[in-house]
Amino acid sequence: MTSDQPPRVELVGISKAFAGVPALDRVDFTLHPGEVHALLGENGAGKSTLIKIMTGALAADAGEMRLDGRAVAVGSTAEARALGISTVYQEVNLVPTLSVARNVTLGREPRRFGLISWRAAREKARARLKRLSLEIDVERALGSFPVAVQQLVAIARALEEDSRVLVLDEPTASLDAQETRLLFRILRDLKAQGMAVVFISHFLDQVYEISDRISVLRNGRLVGSAATAALPQRELITLMLGRELERVEQRAAAAPKAAGAPVLAAEKLGRRRWIEPFDLVLRAGEAIGLAGLLGSGRTETAKLIFGAVRADSGRLTLDGAPLGHASPRRALRRGIAFCPEDRKAEGLVLDLSVRENILLALQTKRGWLRPLPRDEQRRLAEAMIEALGIATSDAEKPVGQLSGGNQQKVVLARALASKPRVLVLDEPTRGIDVGAHAEIVALVRRLCAEGLALLVASSELDEIVAVSDRVAVLRDRRIVGEIAGAEITRETIIELIAGG
Amino acid sequence: MSVNQTIEVAPAPRTLGTRLRGLAGHRAVWPLLALALILAVNGLVSPGFFSIRVVEGRFFGSTIDILYRAMPTAMVALGMAVVIGSKGIDLSVGAIIAICGATIAWRIHAGDPHVVVLLWALGAGLLCGLWNGALVALLGIQPIVATLVLMVSGRGIGLMINLIYGGTNPSFESPFLQSLSVGHVGLIPTRLLLGAASFAALWLLLRRTALGLFIEAVGGNARAADLAGIGSRLVTYSAYLISGLTAGWAGVILTADTHISDPVSQGLYIELDAILAVVIGGGSLAGGRIHLGMTVIGTLIIQALATLILTSGVPPEYNLVVKAVVVLAVLLLQSDDARAALTRRNRARGSLGGGSPGGGSPGGGSPKGGRRR
Ligand SMILES: Nc1ncnc2c1ncn2[C@@H]1O[C@H](COP(=O)(O)OP(=O)(O)OP(=O)(O)O)[C@@H](O)[C@H]1O
Ligand SMILES: [Mg+2]
């Protein structure tokens, strides 16, 4: 890759601190044309901060940036775009109330005689989305689509023909294998055309599949950079974590447990144009996985069971007694907790502190008249920060200032803090790093062993396989099959999804 | 700049400079500074501004006067802070004051005991809050529109009550109500004691129950709050009830002071001062945070400024413009973005290498935040 050509992007000695706490410390980063460069590291390592500096969303405290050998100062995201740098940020930063077409073309609307041509904008958006095999109504508001679709729209927006650098911060975090494959095909095309790509992900398989080079950050410092082929996965993980990762035990459920008593049962529960009526029984000590493609109804099932959305047929029973009109409030009070998939829109109150966010569900359970005493709040927050390894300078930090993966941990922490008997998780580990992922899987399994009834919806088959005692497979908004015990493998699930 | 230079700069993160800068980031600093400055200028303009004497068995002096005059607005502003914290706004508070005034005159003329009249007045405020809350929380009407309804009609309702029960602008005598408003307990004006007590009660309601947290959660992200089991409707509702009640309370104090029900001008434009007080105190109209103490500071800034303009001899025609300029200055000082723009300028003017470690504005400009605020 060392031709006479200068690197496309060169970052030298980048430092950045937030309110005195360093996030990046003299980081160098070099990106060549025609290369996919993976930027890896634990949650809170500084990856997003580095690319925000590179793309003008944040100003560095020190250091400089060169583009094709020339020093540049990127003062804003608009300037970055004008320089040919396209970005997909980790937290989808589009406008949920605007249409998909407007979001795709925002800031670069096709014009005729100086005026925006809406027809051309729609065509442009459709064409872009088609490349990602996404055929949706581009005139609907973006916010009405699931996270994965929003993610694809953000990617479509970034695929400008005249871009020279494409920066992708966890673009595949909520995508299924299928969409990821499509994205990678496009990336390979772009690469062949000389595009320089920065790719951030916690999926190491994907990193090895697509990247040419890997740079690793740890605690805001660059700890290594090597050609992907020269860096075996074990070494990579050790580099990221600063320690070795103990082998995650494969499903502890090798010995089939006797499932406990039914706790929460759905009988012919359904909602028109949402999900076909289904039966599902959650038992104490048992983990059920919900697998299926994007749009198959995973989230819908989870929300219906928690009561985030009201069913129009069937019923839910808790310990055999009908639950009546479902609502999140009632569910929580009865010991059912839920982690939504979209942490920014549905999970967190970004301005509130880590402590307050963790507290919310438990506090609802207690009611507004019985506030948890202040020192118990603090103890709870500290315990959760400890248990889930949330990287934050302190519990009073606004949650919006945490890194993406750490925000996700806060969503989990809130649900766990309410001490639920039934836990419904939708994409619980979106954006969580390998080390923490293993710990969370272990934690959840331990809770299950202690009698928790668990429902996990996930686009990650490996996660489903690792966690579940039973798997319900969805297709086209209906449950099409259930498998249990030793039958649970990637292959059987894929077969069911495909309609075998 | 070279890498070496950065290395030299990096390992001194806790200098006095950074500490000051950390302090500057604290939200209480700028409003307090502004208040201190305005008071100081007041002191320069009118000698004896800070002196407090005892006249006719009570404290007397300009600073007491500022507190005294600010009290009704502060009450309204506290309720407004709660509503704004829930991501709403209450434009009807002035109208609620008018309705309370009319209610007081009506019930006094109807011969109720004056303690009962007080309850009637507060009840009227609560009823107004009930109405606003119903429009916003139950019918889902946008707060600005929903409360506009009462803002527009409230003064008319006051006039109607007057007409039916007492004629135009009925006056009344009520030693009890007047003692609440203009009386004094020992050396201290009663309304200051009542104001302090109301503040404490509101603080306890918000911070010694989980209500404050719930309102802030709903104001920050209603969908997330709902999924966390906080019924966002009821919580939103409670905010408007509180605002109705505090406005009613202010109505009692103001009406008892003038002994007349004057729906057309009583509490006119008080909603604007209340909103301003919340914002000067660091509240964001985007919702999600309630700063009770800072809201009171904001009210005091507005009142101290009004006093300053009156005593400084600025021609009265300039009053409003001077007020606007000072308020704008306070708001700019508080804004992270504006300060960041200023420091960035300074830094650009100085050498690039002298960049400060650990500086920068807290939450300067993430791709999502920053700009939108
Ligand atoms: N606006 C901010 N204010 C304060 N601290 C911040 C802000 N943005 C990021 N940080 C801090 O900087 C550090 C690095 O965050 P960053 O988002 O770059 O991590 P990351 O490597 O992208 O992690 P993840 O894998 O979880 O996305 C974190 O400790 C985070 O708390
Ligand atoms: Mg990140």
UniProtKB/TrEMBL annotation, chain A:
Residues 9-244, 258-496 form the ABC transporter domain. Residues 115-142 form a coiled coil. This is Monosaccharide ABC transporter ATP-binding protein, CUT2 family. The keyword Transport applies. GO terms for molecular function: ATP binding; ATP hydrolysis activity. Keywords: ATP-binding, Coiled coil, Nucleotide-binding, Repeat, Sugar transport, Transport. InterPro entries: AAA+_ATPase (IPR003593), ABC_carbohydrate_import_ATPase (IPR050107), ABC_transporter-like_ATP-bd (IPR003439), ABC_transporter-like_CS (IPR017871), P-loop_NTPase (IPR027417). It comes from Tistlia consotensis USBA 355. SMART domains: AAA. It comes from the Bacteria.
UniProtKB/TrEMBL annotation, chain B:
Its main location: membrane. The chain crosses the membrane at residues 28-46, 66-84, 91-109, 115-138, 145-165, 185-206, 237-256, 268-285, 292-312, 318-335. GO terms for cellular component: plasma membrane. It is found in: Cell membrane. Residues 351-373 have a biased composition (Gly residues). It is a multi-pass membrane protein. InterPro entries: ABC_transp_permease. The lineage of its organism: Bacteria, Pseudomonadati, Pseudomonadota, Alphaproteobacteria, Rhodospirillales. Residues 345-373 are annotated as: Disordered. GO terms for molecular function: transmembrane transporter activity. It comes from Tistlia consotensis USBA 355. This is Monosaccharide ABC transporter membrane protein, CUT2 family. Keywords: Cell membrane, Membrane, Transmembrane, Transmembrane helix. Signal peptide: none annotated.
